[in-house]
Amino acid sequence: MDFEHARKSMVDCQLRPNAITDYRILAAMSEIPRENFTPAAKKPLSYLDEDLPLDPMGARKMMEPMYFGRLAQLAEIKSTDFVLHVACNTGYGTAVLSKFADSIVAIDDNEDFVEMANDALADLEIGNAAVLSGDLKEGLAKEAPFDVIFIEGHIDELPETFFKQLKQDGRLVCVEVENGVPSAVCYVKTASGVSRRVAFNAIVPKLIAFEKQKTFTL
Fold this sequence. Notes:
Pfam family, one: PCMT
Helix content: 25-40%
Low-confidence stretches: none
Oligomer: single chain
Keywords: Methyltransferase, Transferase
Number of helices: 6
GO molecular function: protein-L-isoaspartate (D-aspartate) O-methyltransferase activity
CATH class: Alpha Beta
Distance between the termini: 58 Å
Family: Belongs to the methyltransferase superfamily. L-isoaspartyl/D-aspartyl protein methyltransferase family.
Strand order of the largest sheet: 5-4-3-6-7-8-9
Strand content: 25-35%
Protein name: Protein-L-isoaspartate O-methyltransferase
């Protein structure tokens, strides 16, 4: 398969027509070989415009390129930013974000994904990113504070601990349900508190780790 051609088609046909105008995102996704972060049996599907299952049960999926690009754009990452990437899967998104952030640390709770991500990042000689194993809902307090926290997936609940890990004027991007529809949201932490802005509808993989705990009443 001609992955280089598929990558160009992804950018031209999936990203550009869907309001992704940040040239840094377009350049990074044109450069990073998505297939390097895809399980061997799934490599021919690396550039499809849909979520890509990463495990046999389909519990974890790589986000559709268009939605990933739009979320990255929403985060407004600067070249001086220190970024926390939560639920990084096999590291593709980490590699992309590393191209326009100062440095990035990513976490995942799947040890196999963490190993695959670090191997792929090393193969590409990406030196400003590292992937660690950890509890997704806890973030990474020991490395905080962060300029940007990027949660790659649809969550039911956002733990308050994440706001404690943001710098002032820091941004947190994720997908939450708004009026019954999964929507991309951006939180901004300021001296007076935390604001929340809904940006666009986003049908992305759900993160089981962030499911709302069920309660029972008599």
